[in-house]
Task: structure prediction
Amino acid sequence: MLCDLAHSFPSKVAELLERDRGLKRNFREESVTDLLMFSLVGLEPFGVRVDFPDEPTTGGDMDWIFTAPRDIGGGRYLRIILQAKRAQFAKSKGGYWYYHHLDHEKGKQAQTLVSYAGGAPNGMSTLPLYIFYHPTSALSAKTATEPAVEGINLVFAHQIEPVVAGGCKRKHKTVNAWRSSFMQLSDILCWPFVPVPKPTSPAQASTLGLQITGGPSRVLPFAAGFHPDVVAARLRNRLENVRAKGPIVDIGAHGISAIDGIPADIERAIDGKMTLADRKELARPRVIFSTTLTRNDPSFDREMQRAALKA
Result:
């Protein structure tokens, strides 16, 4: 289901954004972000939890947190913070697509995003990404040398921050300027379900496998493959692809890695025990992807190997 969404939703975004061409008022990034979040709400039986803050603040537009709460060491997690930008059309020079506010506040927004993530806010290891939204007219198919321009693409914020520092020229904001660095939504949302050990007791059944709702209570011996270490491995792979095409990208001292010890507020959310105080602390919409897969399961090594394969 999650993989289906990753492949189908970008085209829906493109169709939506195409509708405001020629209008004086465009759909804002927040509109698409809300639609994406709402699309994930129905996937709760598959380990996906969506939370909205009471009073969102400025900064990144979404937090996506990949967790393995049953893993050793207090569980494992990887947090991704996403800043959204939509492409706009410029009629000059034959017409081209660009991200008008990519260097918002002369690049201060990007700098703040990278610095905030690098400081491990609230003690959470965090990777910043930009998520770009494109209308149908801006789309381009994949070529032998360039990835596809889809309704949604992603780029490492560490690539963007030095380019927009102090403000940048229009040529550095174009879709084509960033296309070679594009990742697809499926790169972080498309994961298989993998076998996990069968429960040996009722107590273990409550914490293992895929929960099936809407009928007799059942637990299937499968888990979502988005273990945070597997997600980190795939993103490291994508980063190496980027480095092969251009300058070295400094991703920070800790690189892209999951860490032990899921924060208490995230654990409460996973367990359905989120408090009013927890909600008040939310700064932006949040998605928690929770899997019962652990590093001790036989499927884990196979998924790590798959994640390391070149795209």
